[in-house]
Amino acid sequence: MKFSVLTTKRCLPCMLMAGLLLFPGGGAAEPPALPAGLGGVANPDEDSREQPPVPAGLEGLASQQDAAGEPDLPAPAAPTMEATSEPRSFRDSLPDWLGLTGFLESRAGFRLQNDPHEKNSSIGEARVQLEADAVAQGFVVELTTDMYYDWVTGDTALDLEQGRGYLDIRKACVGYSPFSFMDVKVGRQILTWGTGDLIFINDLFPKDWQSFFIGRDDEYLKAPSDAAKISFYTGLVNVDVVYTPNFDADRYVTGRRLSYWNGSAVVGRNDIVRVHRPDDWFSDDELALRLSKNVSGYELALYGYVGYWKSPAGQDPVSMKRLFPRLSVYGASLRGQVGSGIGYIELGYYDSRDDRSGRDPFINNSQMRYLAGYEQDLPGIANDLTFGMQYYVEQTLRFNRYRRALPQGNKAVKEYRQLVTLRITRLFFNQNLTCSLFAYISPTDSDLYFRPSVGYKLNDHVLVELGGNIFAGAHRYTFFGQFRDNTNGYAAVRYSF
């Protein structure tokens, strides 16, 4: 794998962070125990102690004092509820039935090199999230709404599907359990399943790749689905069925804020992706199924999906609009304890129903996707240290037909695209400081993507964070190589309530 000197410079901060995370010294040490006898001092109630008997001859005086009573305290010294109670927070002032939580956040980021196709700022927004839930007559109502302003794009045109504008409804759903073995949830919700760590094979629910690449919190990688989910719990197998009446696409890279490879060159705001998206209710729908069972401590699952490619995977040669071809996926996974850690494997067959023959150069071929992963805590090396590794393969089927049909001058994908991921996370200072590095490295594409981050909790409410999205690659047409001008750093402050 060949990388330039610039690639090495970009990766140097990540290498230093990896060394810091693995170094066993630092702030992880626990404070020394208190000497014996100082672990705590009892403070018994003095009024409850047995008083010594009154000496002979003084009984009368004692009874007179009891009759007279103690003098009243002066008014200023009398304790009051206002003087002793803690100040009430914003959360405490709300009705208990509302169950309102959320956060306020400011986040800003900048490109670390010049990109002629995009602005220097990668992210700049103020955001407030409000989350509420209520229970009534067995129904659970959940609502999560983000209101924000992004001064990088200044976009106020509301698009709830792509999460653009000033409002993003993350969750608005109703749940109910008509039977003890059945749960139903209907409405906008965040859905996920599968075993991978930031790699998705059988999880065909929408993802927000733009948020992921510009430095929003990891929670925003999962985009919401407008769907109905029904779960059945039986002694034989658990069944999850998700029906989406109108196709929910990924929030994919469009060129509005991230430059990308359009098939012949890297472009950005000068070439916004135009798509023809399936958009007919109850006709352009999706159906996802999972069967899962725990066998001797190992979770075995089978998956099925019928719908469309979640990001554009084809092109109309006449209109030049990007397409979402029809897609079916069939897969399986196994996850459980391996040694002192957790291991898992997952695979999926991607049936590209609009090009099963592999002869259409304008539609993605069918694929096989494979994943094997392992994660483990490493207390023998350092306290609060976690390590994870994954190996992923994406196989293009009917590859010879694909090569013969490829128009002259177009760059061919690899028949077996390989990807290795590494995750290193370490906690310091009583787990208030989190240092993390997640890396994608492709030996076949000669490209990579690093996600270093450092987060520190100032107190129970305030979190500050620094991080980056570092792309590098030997070729502009590979997946991560196309984004190398989008390399950015960001900072954020979040107040949770």
Q: What share of the residues does DSSP label as strand, in percent?
A: 35-45%
Q: What class would the helix/strand composition place it in? A: mainly beta
Number of strands: 23
Shape, please? globular
How much is the radius of gyration in Å? 30 Å
Fold and architecture overview:
Helix content is 9%, strand content 42%. The protein has helices at residues 5-22, 59-68, 81-84, 209-214, 399-405; strands at 101-111, 121-136, 139-150, 167-179, 182-189, 225-233, 238-244, 260-261, 266-267, 275-276, 286-295, 298-308, 314-315, 322-323, 326-338, 341-352, 367-377, 385-396, 416-428, 433-442, 447-457, 462-473, 488-496. The strands form three sheets. It has an 18-stranded antiparallel barrel. The chain is globular and about 60 Å long. The two termini are 47 Å apart.
How are the secondary structure elements laid out?
Blueprint: H1 5-22, H2 59-68, H3 81-84, E1 101-111, E2 121-136, E3 139-150, E4 167-179, E5 182-189, H4 209-214, E6 225-233, E7 238-244, E8 260-261, E9 266-267, E10 275-276, E11 286-295, E12 298-308, E13 314-315, E14 322-323, E15 326-338, E16 341-352, E17 367-377, E18 385-396, H5 399-405, E19 416-428, E20 433-442, E21 447-457, E22 462-473, E23 488-496
